[in-house]
Each structure stands twice: as structure tokens, then as C-alpha cells.
Write a structure and sequence with these properties.
The protein is an alpha+beta fold. It is built from four helices and eight strands.
């Protein structure tokens, strides 16, 4: 009986931990009924939401910048810190982009093919745009 209580307590603690709270906060519906977008308390307008939906439907996902160390936190402008670049990736056609993809002449969303997974020095990056946030899956700081 004691083992069962300990197991139940451990399960309860695991389920209510930060990862669970983070998943709950991010699993909500973003700006209306668009469940394929990341939830956001920001006030994205219709055009922003539509752009994010179009990018997601075309296969694009934004990978947020990540700090390499504890000192490299969002908002810390210390140039000695190191960050992982943010970039766009498309799992449908295996392309990438360092900039937000744009529509080409055939109405296809295309990137610059310069998205990379590399570290850079130089303090916290800018906050993500609303489109970057809505098209991402985790990380970053929520835009205004």
C-alpha cells in the first residue's frame, strides 16, 4: 500500500511539474480557433494569423533561438554570451531559411536556403515576431 501511495505521489508531482505546465500553456488555441498554431496572449491581427497559417500549411516551422549557457538568457545583452541561431525549416520539402519565407511568383512559400544550426556570440537576440512565435513549437519569449 505504501508503495502505491509513493508511486501515486511521484506521478502527481511529475504531472504537475514545469514541463506539464509549459505543455498546457502552449497547447491552447492561438488567436481564435487555429489549433495548429502555438497559443499566444499577443494580439495578432487577422493578416498576421493568416500568414502564420499559410506558412504552417506549407510545412514551415520556426525554430527559436536558444541560449548555450545559463548566462545567455533572454534580455541579457552581454556580448560574451553565445546563442543558437533561430531559423525556419520546412519538413515537407526539406528546405530552410534564415529569414521568414515569402511567396514566390508561383504563390509558393520559399526561403533563402540559408537557415543553419550554428552558434553565434553576441548577447540575446531580438524577441520573436508574432508570426515566428505562432509558427514555432517551443522556446523563446512571447511577443507583445
Amino acid at each position: 500500500m505504501r508503495t502505491l501511495k509513493v508511486a501515486a505521489l511521484a506521478l502527481l508531482m511529475f504531472a504537475s511539474g514545469p514541463a506539464s505546465q509549459n505543455a498546457t500553456a502552449q497547447s491552447g488555441v492561438a488567436t481564435g480557433s487555429h489549433s495548429e498554431l502555438r497559443s499566444c496572449r499577443c494580439s495578432a491581427d487577422k493578416a498576421t494569423t493568416q500568414t502564420a497559417l499559410d506558412l504552417k500549411h506549407a510545412g514551415w516551422t520556426y525554430v527559436m533561438p536558444e541560449p548555450k549557457s545559463r548566462q545567455a538568457a533572454w534580455g541579457n545583452r552581454d556580448g560574451r554570451t553565445t546563442w543558437f541561431y533561430g531559423y525556419w525549416t520546412n519538413l515537407k520539402n526539406h528546405s530552410s531559411s534564415s529569414l521568414q519565407p515569402i511567396k514566390d511568383g508561383t504563390a509558393q512559400w520559399v526561403g533563402d536556403e540559408k537557415g543553419l544550426q550554428a552558434w553565434r556570440n553576441g548577447g540575446s537576440p531580438r524577441a520573436p515576431t508574432q508570426v515566428e512565435w505562432l509558427c514555432s513549437e517551443r522556446g523563446g519569449i512571447e511577443p507583445a
